[in-house]
């Protein structure tokens, strides 16, 4: 499925819509260049589960846990340089936990992800337009 959004608000609404189809144990792998809207989409997903506080990309802390109706694990691998760092972070405990894992820069861990996951590939079309290609939802 492909969806084009024309603003940050539309991207957040898309995230809210996608959240309605997510359940415990789901892994959402997000792909897209810097500034493509990965964190914005995740803000919508997390807010749909009743979390009302600020959601920021956990680039420096790598993993943010949001305790909502279902635990949400926001994982940002932007700063990860090699696979050994990933192993030491304990990420796999979250991936197979009781919550939903939302992974930015999923290409850095892709070979270790289970084949049963939701892939979202984001393309920048213009300053405000984004194309979201959603697989396996």
Word description of this protein:
Helix content is about 25%, strand content about 30%. It is α/β, with parallel strands linked by helices and about 140 residues long. It has a single domain (about 1-135), classed as 3-Layer(aba) Sandwich (Rossmann fold), CATH 3.40.50. A 7-stranded mixed beta sheet has the order 1-7-6-2-5-4-3. The chain is globular and about 40 Å long. It starts with a strand and ends with a strand.
What portion of residues is helical?
A: 25-40%
Q: Compute the average pLDDT.
A: 90
Sheet-strand content, in percent, reads: 25-35%
CATH topology (level 3) name: Rossmann fold
Distance between the termini: 9 Å
State the order of secondary-structure elements, H for helix, E for strand. Answer: EHEHEEHHEEE
What order do the strands of the largest sheet run in, or round the barrel if closed? 1-7-6-2-5-4-3
How would you classify the helix and strand content by structural class? alpha/beta
Taken from the alpha-carbon principal axes, the silhouette is globular
CATH-derived architecture: 3-Layer(aba) Sandwich
CATH C-level class: Alpha Beta
TL;DR?
With 137 residues, the protein is of the alpha/beta class. It has helices spanning 8-19, 38-48, 83-89, 91-95, and strands spanning 2-5, 27-31, 63-67, 71-76, 100-104, 118-124, 130-135.
């Amino acid at each position: 499925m492909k969806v084009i959004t024309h603003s940050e608000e539309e991207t957040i609404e898309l995230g809210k819509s996608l959240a309605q189809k997510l359940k415990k144990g789901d892994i959402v792998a997000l792909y897209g260049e810097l500034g493509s809207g990965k964190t914005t989409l995740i803000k919508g997903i997390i807010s749909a589960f009743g979390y009302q506080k600020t959601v920021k990309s956990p680039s420096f802390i790598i993993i943010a846990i949001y305790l909502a109706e279902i635990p949400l694990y926001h994982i940002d691998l932007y700063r990860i340089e090699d696979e050994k760092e990933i192993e030491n972070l304990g990420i796999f405990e979250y991936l197979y936990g009781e919550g939903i894992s939302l992974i930015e820069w999923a290409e850095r861990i892709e070979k270790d992800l289970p084949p049963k996951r939701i892939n979202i590939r984001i393309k920048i079309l213009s300053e405000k337009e984004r194309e979201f290609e959603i697989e396996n939802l």
